Amino acid sequence: MDLILIGFMGSGKTTISRRLGQRLGLPVTDLDQVIVTTAEQSIATIFAEQGEAGFRRLETQALAQQISQPGILATGGGVPTQAQNRSLLHRQPAPVVLLEIAPETAYERVKADEQRPLAKQLDLAKLAALKVARQANYQRCADLIVDANQSPDLIVDEILTKYQLG
Ligand code: S3P
What we know:
binds shikimate-3-phosphate; Shikimate/glucono_kinase; Shikimate kinase
């Protein structure tokens, strides 16, 4: 990959990856989409039929498969929680950018989303607690942390300026 985005659910990874891809003329890969296409099942169905552990196995397989491809990769919010995924991220050369979002904003964005089975079960307090529990792993994986509580244009500019891209 040329650049990898990580961050909590609702931090804007998909949106920002598309904009980066447009600006840089690079292909964009969404890891959740790869999982859905490979499994021929929705994320919600995978969670319902195989549980979170089954989903995590598919996610690690998809990450291992995609990580050496060119382009921008938007990961799922749980990727940095798995040791195997962290080691895949560490072993590859592309910058890993953490989009840092306020839990309130993340909650507003994901609460009604049927395709985010984890978020669906959580109220704001529980979602915020999940983010806190994950934070050390997010930071451990990140080469750059960007405030994602700003407009997509500013976020993209910050990333491009930092890596002198575009
Ligand atoms: C998850 C985040 C989702 C998706 C799955 C699990 C998580 O991706 O991979 O529902 O554990 O945070 P987004 O970050 O794109 O919502």
